[in-house]
Design goal:
The chain is α/β, with parallel strands linked by helices and 490 residues long. The protein has helices at residues 54-71, 122-130, 150-165, 172-188, 193-197, 200-203, 210-219, 232-243, 305-312, 326-336, 348-357, 359-391, 398-433, 449-457; strands at 28-29, 33-34, 40-43, 51-52, 92-95, 100-104, 110-115, 118-119, 141-144, 204-205, 223-227, 259-262, 276-279, 288-290, 299-302, 319-323, 340-344, 442-443, 446-447, 460-462, 476-477. It is built from 14 helices and 21 strands. The chain has a 10-stranded mixed β-sheet, sandwiched between helices. Helix 8 links the parallel strand 11 and strand 12 (259-262). It starts with 27 loop residues before the first strand and ends in a 13-residue tail after the last strand.
């Protein structure tokens, strides 16, 4: 039997052959990280351990929010309006004063903007946002930085469109405030959470690999903790659905974790000093007592970063925290501690698929950019030559002047054609990623504001927690060499 026919099972601790992994199953590295130096691995729950079916969640949230808007006195025709659950992506900015939704690059250049479901022309964008620097004050602007927040952007765009169409005068800022209050109310009163909790298979993707992935980390000596903003009742139901029965070694989901902390109140967990409370899980909703230690098998609420580290005797970069929220999970933990971070980007699968489908178009765009740069250099040379010929007046060679003029006209035509082709290719490329906003990580040739935050604050990023199982718990995640433009010259 030859080697091609011999298929031996790979032991759990064997090195991962990363190059053979599908891209959507890889962990991507911004900052090098040695997993063998990590003692504790912590996890958020929603959109991290629990991967929601986004369109189902968004439809439920949109319906509940619009219903509450009408109950508040907004026109009943809002219920008949079009709300596209696929309208928003992370990293957008709501302009509450003007009713616009914006996408910026890392330098705060507004590359795309929509008023309701109508895209703004470039000259309008320029007049509003490029003549002066955009200063992102919370009184006027609001970030859409989580998957949880996508429905509020979809409702806002749809409501602005229909209210404008009916000629209803509206304060766009107040409209957004009302939408935020309605969606929060819908979560508090169970209009959203209770529906999800009572039909988890409809809304949540139960990943069969989650239990083995956590077990692999524990088997390598890592301690695991759960740190979620969700309250105990919802956490218990969700985690039971995700992990109970996943592996016979664990009688309950709680046995996977050395510390379970709910109602954590992130991002204030990283900055405030709220004391830990022990949740008495067999008691009523108010059954809590002060906690002076964090023990395996118990459930805790609230708490703070400093007490967490002190009680466990573990600090800084010995902790890896895995979450989906740039601000609440990643940015605050990086700014207020030296915890290492892994960002879950649930959208990676379609982003990578679009990247693959647009590969040839992007290569053509790069070739066009080089051709345009060359043509512009040639045009400047021949324009200078033409001016010199004209200055000679009657002494100039008339034929040479005419030939130079023809060359200039040809170069201008080349540039116009290249510009048209590049614009068409860019439009086709953008819509392959997302029909409204293009790539999640890019705006034009620059990183988008979201892409910049991922690069700046996430040590690692990947599409789901179970991708960690493709690597040894002692793996050394090495970041690629970071090149400046002058290092990229041939």
């Amino acid at each position: 039997m030859d080697d091609a026919q011999l298929k031996l099972p790979m032991p759990d601790d064997a090195p991962a052959h990363v190059a053979s992994l599908p891209a959507e199953r890889r962990v991507f590295v911004n900052r090098s990280l040695r997993m063998d130096s990590v003692e504790w691995v912590g996890f958020d729950m929603d959109y991290t351990l629990a991967i929601y079916r986004q369109e189902e969640i968004d439809r439920l949230s949109i319906e509940a929010t619009v219903r509450k808007l009408v109950e508040r006195g907004y026109p009943p025709f809002l219920r008949e309006a079009t709300y596209d659950p696929g309208f928003a992506i992370r990293g957008l900015l709501i302009d509450k004063r003007l009713g616009h939704v914006l996408k910026m690059d890392r330098y705060r250049y507004v590359g795309r903007a929509w008023h309701g479901l109508r895209e703004l022309e470039r000259d309008v964008r320029h007049a509003l946002y490029e003549a002066r620097k955009v200063r992102i004050a919370p009184q006027r602007y609001h970030w859409i930085d989580t998957l949880y927040a996508l429905p509020e952007a979809a409702v806002y765009a749809g409501a602005v469109s229909v209210l404008d169409a009916y000629g209803v005068h509206v304060d766009y800022g107040q409209l957004f405030t009302d939408i935020r209050e309605c969606i929060d109310e819908a979560h508090r009163d169970g209009s959203i959470v209770d529906v999800i909790a009572n039909d988890l298979p409809r809304f949540v993707d139960r990943d069969a690999g989650l239990g083995p992935a956590l077990h692999k980390l524990r088997s390598a000596g890592k301690k695991l903790f759960l740190l979620t903003n969700s309250r105990w009742g919802y956490t218990q139901k969700m985690m039971s659905y995700l992990l109970d029965g996943a592996m016979h070694e664990y009688a309950s989901w709680r046995q996977y974790f050395d510390v379970v902390s709910v109602a954590a109140g992130k991002p204030s967990f990283f900055t405030d000093k709220r004391p830990y409370l022990e949740r008495l899980v067999d008691g009523g909703p108010d059954a809590v007592q002060p906690a002076y230690a964090l023990e395996r098998g118990k459930v805790y609420e609230q708490g703070n970063l400093k007490d967490f580290e002190r009680m466990l005797g573990v600090y800084g970069d010995a902790i890896l925290y895995v979450g989906d929220h740039i601000f609440g999970d990643i940015l605050r933990s990086k700014k207020d501690s030296s915890w290492r971070t892994l960002l879950i980007v649930q959208e990676m699968a379609w982003e990578l698929e679009a990247q693959h489908r647009t590969h040839d178009d992007v290569a053509r765009l790069d070739a066009l950019a080089r051709r345009r740069e060359q043509a512009e250099d040639e045009l400047r040379f021949h324009q200078s030559r033409h001016r010199a010929q004209v200055r000679k007046g009657s002494g100039a060679d008339r034929l040479a002047v005419d030939e130079t003029r023809l060359v200039i006209d040809g170069l201008r035509a080349t540039l116009r054609a290249a510009e048209v082709e590049a614009r068409d290719l860019a439009t086709r490329t953008d819509t392959t990623f997302h029909r409204y906003w293009g790539s999640l990580f890019k705006q034009g040739v620059e990183l988008s504001s979201f892409g910049y935050q991922v690069e700046a604050y996430a040590c690692l990023y990947t599409s789901r927690v179970t991708n960690l199982a493709n690597y040894s718990p002692a793996h050394y995640f090495r970041s690629p060499r970071d090149l400046m433009p002058h290092e990229m010259t041939g």
